[in-house]
Design a protein that fits this description.
heterodimer; A: 116 residues; mainly beta; seven-stranded mixed β-sheet; four-stranded antiparallel β-sheet; B: 112 residues; six-stranded mixed β-sheet; five-stranded antiparallel β-sheet; 0% helix
Amino acid sequence: GAVVSQHPSWVICKSGTSVKIECRSLDFQATTMFWYRQFPKQSLMLMATSNEGSKATYEQGVEKDKFLINHASLTLSTLTVTSAHPEDSSFYICSASRALLNYGYTFGSGTRLTVV
Amino acid sequence: TQLLEQSPQFLSIQEGENLTVYCNSSSVFSSLQWYRQEPGEGPVLLVTVVTGGEVKKLKRLTFQFGDARKDSSLHITAAQPGDTGLYLCAGFDTGTASKLTFGTGTRLQVTL
């Protein structure tokens, strides 16, 4: 159990376009999902906390107008990178948890975004 | 901001050797987790430690949570090439909106 599906696994887009990444909890309901960004050979940096039915909470330094997060249901959160630029190229990962502490966090397989 | 420093940052060893990875912080965490991540994939949870001083074993991996719940270690016995990957500790504090703070990471390479 506790499977998180992330789609697409990789995407290449032109500079100035927008890209949507989906994160789904397949066999459980996730009231909270998290979005991370990871640069090559670095650790995961939390971008925002996505709460079902409410606005996302962004970490300091993350532009909420550029990284739009929607958590419309208990099984789906989306991250939209708007007006993407080459510096937005990165590995984006989502995670979700059923019950904190006991189950830990299940991570998606990540999305490799390349902006050209 | 809670910070988790891992050491070493990079470790290259031969098959059969033992190694220890450290995860240190000045903050107290209610629990701490260890993940392993392979290139192009998301992190996979290895263990969660909750009690100060707790020791957990997962086959050849031994995890320890410091008495003060500020640090942790991961010891691998007789490393194998399949252990190669990025090892991440992550601290969980219910006081910070239930989010995980990840360590700086340790990249392990095990060669034949």
